[in-house]
Automatic annotation (TrEMBL):
Signal sequence annotation: none
Keyword flag Coiled coil: yes
Transmembrane segments: none
Chain segments annotated as coiled-coil in the UniProt record: 397-428
Entries under InterPro entries matching the protein: B3/B4_tRNA-bd, Leu-rich_rpt, Leu-rich_rpt_4, Leu-rich_rpt_typical-subtyp, LRR_dom_sf, Phe-tRNA-ligase_IIc_bsu, Phe-tRNA_synthase-like_B3/B4
Stated name of the protein: Leucine-rich repeat-containing protein 47
One record GO biological process: phenylalanyl-tRNA aminoacylation
Pfam family, one: LRR_4
Keywords from the named record: Coiled coil, Leucine-rich repeat, Phosphoprotein, Repeat
Annotated stretches, region: Disordered: 266-297, 506-541
Amino acid sequence: MAAAAVSEPWPELELAERERRRELLLTGPGLEERVRAAGGRLPPRLFTLPLLHYLEVSGCGSLRAPGPGLAQGLPQLHSLVLRRNALGPGLSPELGPLLALRVLDLSGNALEALPPGQGLGPAEPPGLPQLQSLNLSGNRLRELPADLARCAPRLQSLNLTGNCLDAFPAALFSPGALPLLSELAAADNCLRELSPDIAHLASLKTLDLSNNQLSEIPAELADCPKLKEVNFRGNKLRDKRLEKMVSGCQTKSILEYLRVGGRGCGRGKGAEKEDGGKKRRERKQRRESGEGEEEATDAARLLLRVLHVSENPSPLTVRVSPEVRDVRPYIVGAVVRGMDLRPGNALKRFLTSQTRLHEDLCGKRTAATIATHDLRALRGPLLYATQPPQDLKIVPLGRKEAKAKELVRQLQLEAEEQRKQKKRQSVSGLHRYLHLLDGKENYPCLMDADGDVISFPPITNSEKTKIKKTTSDLFLEVTSATSLQICKDVMDTLILKMAEMNKYTSENKEEGSLSDTEADAVSGQLSDPQVNPGAGKDGQSPLVVEQVRVVDLEGSLKVVYPSKADLAAAPPHVTVLR
């Protein structure tokens, strides 16, 4: 009887255990009271679900500590999201070791310090050896653990925005300490100094230290070999020219200024300009003279040409409503033109590659979700917002128009029927992702200028913008509840994969073309056959990637993709022209 009494308030745990679920989300108005009754901690029974890969507990003002047993009970955990709770001032006991964890989101809590024994995990051996993304934004941290780099040596994205930090630990920038770190965000802190040792971050691509108390920027920052984006706005720099530059100039200009030692130092601005102009002239001469013609021909088959917003007469823009912050805050978009999906099984390969990305890089849609649209079927600007389930209306792929509440209920019934018919707990298709909506009072959605919902992440797209064999121009979106960098990484991978597929299509003349009906069966779409003229010449299929700006409702830029830091890891046989 006692055991039944303890488990009764947690039906989610019983369901997860019965269905052998790998993902679990705990949220909603009833959660606070239950956690309070458990002493401000997660219930011990939660740590008896060893199959969990994804765990999210968010928006619980009574959750002060995860509780003992997490590391031992959830050894396969890949993503741990504990956003907008009351964790703090430390973590007791410490979280790790979590040997499989890749994503950790502790944003919006009350953490003040993460000392040994009350932090993320041990340093020797590393407590978080596979961790890639760490979000500590919106806490009260006064300092970072000195052994952070040893605890999480494979860290790629570190978000420290909105804390009380006045310095980085020296060990964070030690040679070889974080060889994979590509994104460092520490805006809205109290940082007074940036060490020259930051140059040891060999993979750093984006750095945001805006709205701090920095007075100088070390010249060594220009030695970061992959750095493409910096933000130092809101700092009172001693070098007033540099202060003006960080407010209005591109990253390249800022780094060149630092590289020559600032105003009146080094070789001087004129010499740098002369060298830059000489290199540009040499590149132009090589292109015009046809130097390396054979190599250029091969590269053209995997050509990615980036069209900047300033060069585009009608760029697509995504406006973001502030309420998505509490549901699914991150979105990245891109337009790709020149895709050839008509020959053979090209469309099937494209849809299959998207499914594989969802399974692998996207962590079965727990880390991110991809949506692809026929660009010609939508009208911009787009709006990314939230709606109550009873109001959100969409025509899902292969289904009739329905409100989200009805659609989710129908999918749940179908999932139960699947389990009965197959006599097993696992389900397939969209039914696998329904748990990601558990406890959400509002659902995220992307709408076009006509007010039609074209995407309902992480569940489905709209029939209106379905991809067909005749589609050549696409709008791609990636959304995430965990990280902007994950969105960018997924988008990079998707676009590079599209370039590979276009090359394969151009080099292999396939017969037995996949019909629209067969392709729709793969994607869950219904057919709408059209005829579209072929793209590309001489078997070559160049792709044009148009930048898409994501802005807030006032028009202020949040992110643009692809930026200079994106698509930087393209393999040698892919040529990216910017």
